[in-house]
Q: What sequence folds into this?
């Protein structure tokens, strides 16, 4: 660290730092206990990574698409907007260095960093609106799931399911697999709460509220001959966006650290939603490229520490008390956090991969001989059947209501909740341990040497080392190295007719989805561009409410 004891690093030229001003020379453990800002740095970073990694969960290629009820359209799956390539291991440090040096000389030229700070705060507060809106919307989804879970368990271990289409609750008979509708539970509330709404009208109102908070709306936007956009959103997404605007405005005018921290955390969270390292090999190379960049910029140039201390914008977490200030730059969270999120998705991939079951398929083929006779050949092949994916979004309320008092995990009978939230996470937990160790070593070096420390110097070996050592110990190095999120693993076995018989063929799931997406886009354009077409079209469509829900008069 510098004389101000600033540990800094950057992934995009914007400050990523761990800072504390003039700590007393004392043991690390004593300082950690007496200075809560140190503990706040570590816990905040771990919390953001945990939330971002779980928020980035998507259907792994080892799972089948979500099962939908008859008559309902298959939901469109989220995709990462950007996947890293091997060349990014070189380009990231170069681009980060260019931006960092540019900011440094801009600050020196202006002589007054407040001018740049005002511009950066205004720009980033606007940019943070979308990020905070996403975080707030997902948080509201979690709160809604706590009140309106789709699965819950009573004290006897009986699993109850909530059917939002038929507006009733039911249990599954273990012997026959049939659904038994519960007539005494007229509301969507769980456990004893479901007995509160005795009247039909009270139950109908609760079903209406549940419908508004959990069902997706469809937004269409089109301009004739130019563009057609269609996407889904929830009421909570709109509410989250409305919440984000006053937060961003308040930060722009007040500049409070707590508001800056909220916006910074939201931008980290949104980055996890949009960016994927693609594979462990590429992610590791990118991290080690930035590892070298960080060391050079902190130890051998004045750029990093100067920008980190003079730039006041939502690009870092800031914790302070009467004597000291501690800061953690967003790069120290996002850079290793990307690989940690990939580790959690790999855990989910491994979980579903172990559930793939071979299913025998009889293949019959006919061949025509030169004399005109036909011969039939029959052979048995295996078709790989994937378990259907259970979306973890909206499942945390289910986990709470399916977990018995004193236990940390939901009961096994609630299989969908277990698959979504309690699947084994050895790689993610290993990376969390490695990240924590890296943070503690960073703070220790900060106190011992009282000089700016590049945090990635300790975080990168901690995270990457923990992941690769775990793979080696579990004998899964080949699986880990071969895992990728570029879509090539998303295949499915399909049975096709060939010459009057059947044949098992492998088809890439991404290719099939792209074909469907293109057909939907063409269909949507044709719907908008009729004989009497609209030059401009914008609509928001809500799913139809069941007949049991009262309508306004």
A:
């Amino acid at each position: 660290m510098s004389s101000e004891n600033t540990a800094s690093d950057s992934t995009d030229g914007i400050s990523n730092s761990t800072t504390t001003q003039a700590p007393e020379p004392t043991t690390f453990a004593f300082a950690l206990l007496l200075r809560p800002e140190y503990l706040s740095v570590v816990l905040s970073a771990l919390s953001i990574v945990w939330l971002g990694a779980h928020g980035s969960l998507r259907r792994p290629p080892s799972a089948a698409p979500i099962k939908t009820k008859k008559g309902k359209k298959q939901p469109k799956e989220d995709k990462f907007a950007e996947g890293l390539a091997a060349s990014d291991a070189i380009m990231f440090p170069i681009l980060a260095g260019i931006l960092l040096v540019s900011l440094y000389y801009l600050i020196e030229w202006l002589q007054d960093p407040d001018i740049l700070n005002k511009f950066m705060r205004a720009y980033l507060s606007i940019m943070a609106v979308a990020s905070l809106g996403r975080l707030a919307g997902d948080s509201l989804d979690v709160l809604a799931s706590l009140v309106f879970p789709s699965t819950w368990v009573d004290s006897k271990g009986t699993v109850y399911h909530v059917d939002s289409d038929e507006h009733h609750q039911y249990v599954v008979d273990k012997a026959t697999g049939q659904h038994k509708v519960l007539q005494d539970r007229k509301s969507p509330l769980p456990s004893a709460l479901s007995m509160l709404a005795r009247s039909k009208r009270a139950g109908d109102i609760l079903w209406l509220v549940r419908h508004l908070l959990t069902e997706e709306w469809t937004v269409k936007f089109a301009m004739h001959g130019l563009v057609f956009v269609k996407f889904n959103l929830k009421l909570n997404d709109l509410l989250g966006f409305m919440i984000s605007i006053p937060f961003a405005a308040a930060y722009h005018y007040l500049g409070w650290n707590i508001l800056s921290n909220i916006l910074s955390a939201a931008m980290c969270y949104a980055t996890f939603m949009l960016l994927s390292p693609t594979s462990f090999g590429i992610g590791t190379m990118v991290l080690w490229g930035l590892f070298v960049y960080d060391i050079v910029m902190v130890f051998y140039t004045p750029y990093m520490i100067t920008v980190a201390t003079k730039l006041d914008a939502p690009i870092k977490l800031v914790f302070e008390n009467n004597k000291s200030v501690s800061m953690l730059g967003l790069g120290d969270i996002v850079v290793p956090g990307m690989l940690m999120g990939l580790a959690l998705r790999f855990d989910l991939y491994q979980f579903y991969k172990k559930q793939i079951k071979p299913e025998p398929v009889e293949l019959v083929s006919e061949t025509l001989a030169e004399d005109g006779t036909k011969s039939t050949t029959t052979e048995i092949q295996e078709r790989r059947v994937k378990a259907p994916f259970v979306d973890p979004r909206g499942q945390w309320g289910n986990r709470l209501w399916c977990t018995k008092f004193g236990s940390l995990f939901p009961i096994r009978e609630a299989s969908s909740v277990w698959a979504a939230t309690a699947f084994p996470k050895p790689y993610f937990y290993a990376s969390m341990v490695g990240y924590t160790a890296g943070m503690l070593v960073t703070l220790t070096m900060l106190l011992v040497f009282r000089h700016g420390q590049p945090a990635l110097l300790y975080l990168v070996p901690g995270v990457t080392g923990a992941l690769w050592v775990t793979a080696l110990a579990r004998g899964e190095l080949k699986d880990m190295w071969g895992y990728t999120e570029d879509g090539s693993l998303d295949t499915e076995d399909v049975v096709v007719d060939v010459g009057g018989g059947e044949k098992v063929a492998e088809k890439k799931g991404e290719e099939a989805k792209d074909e469907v997406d293109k057909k939907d886009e063409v269909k949507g354009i044709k719907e908008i561009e009729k004989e009497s077409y609209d030059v401009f079209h914008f609509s928001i469509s809500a799913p139809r409410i069941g007949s049991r829900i009262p309508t306004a008069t």
